[in-house]
Write a structure and sequence with these properties.
Number of strands: 10
Structural class: alpha/beta
Order of helices and strands: HHHEEEEEEEEEE
Radius of gyration: 41 Å
Number of helices: 3
Distance between the termini: 84 Å
Strand content: 25-35%
Low-confidence stretches: 41-47, 56-65
Helix content: 40-55%
Length: 243
């Protein structure tokens, strides 16, 4: 059923008021404005009729109509400016929301990519680039604490009476390969991963690895474990681990 002009106006009024609540006041203002203008025109016509009957001239009525028309035009212009400004603010808010949504989506994709990268390393049991793998022979190290400050692939072998500490950057992934190590700590954990974004320990196939901690945990009260990591830790591989 086709809508009348009144029906279309009402539908437009309802739509804008639901979408943009600030328009409700402006619509009411416009309705009152036009009602007042219509009333003024009615009284101007009555005044003109009285002037004609009394032999007067219509200058006063004509001037009144011109004044009313100017006031009407000025009022409509003000309302149009207000509507344009409010519409501009609404469009800017929508654009701002769209930009924020795009940033959140980029952050989500970056986090997902980072998660997939970590999963790939969790499953890897061999160095990606053997020629770039850092190899440490514990037999060649003096007893005590062996500090490793680099991330990436690290191949450990040999025996040590002391402690191996991994202190990489907080955004670096450390992948340790235990290839027949025997570490006996005199204080605290035998293998202590103090700082890294994530750590993976691979037990190299056909090797036996022994980690022995100390009953003395002075200065290590918060890390009471033979193999301790402050970050996420994955252990994989076909080798053996004795602790």
């Amino acid at each position: 059923m086709p809508l009348t002009a009144a029906g279309r106006s009402q539908r437009g009024y309802n739509f804008y008021c639901k979408k943009m609540p600030w328009t409700k006041i402006l619509f009411k203002y416009i309705i009152l404005l036009f009602a007042d203008i219509t009333s003024n025109k009615y009284y101007l016509i009555i005044d003109n009729i009285h002037e004609r009957e009394s032999g007067g001239v219509m200058k006063r009525g004509k001037a009144g109509r011109q004044t009313g028309s100017a006031a009407c035009a000025a009022s409509i212009l003000c309302v149009a400016v207000l509507l344009t400004a409010c519409a501009g603010e609404n469009i800017a808010a929508r654009r701002s929301g769209a930009d924020e949504g795009a940033v959140q989506e980029e952050e989500w994709l970056a986090a997902r990519t980072k998660g997939e990268r970590r999963t790939r390393h969790d499953l890897r049991t061999e160095p990606e680039e053997p020629e770039k793998t850092q190899r440490i022979d514990l037999d060649a190290c003096e007893g005590g604490k062996v500090m490793v400050a680099d991330g990436g692939d690290i191949w450990l072998s040999g025996s040590l009476e002391g402690q191996v500490v991994i202190d990489a950057e907080e955004d670096e992934l450390v992948h340790l390969y235990l290839a027949g190590v025997e570490i006996t700590s005199l204080n605290g954990p035998a293998l202590y991963i103090e700082e890294a974004a994530k750590a993976v320990v691979t037990l190299v196939s056909e090797t036996e690895n022994v980690l022995a901690d100390s009953p003395d945990y002075t200065d290590y009260e918060d890390s009471p474990a033979c193999l301790y990591s402050v970050c996420d830790l994955t252990v994989n591989g076909d080798g053996a681990l004795i602790m």
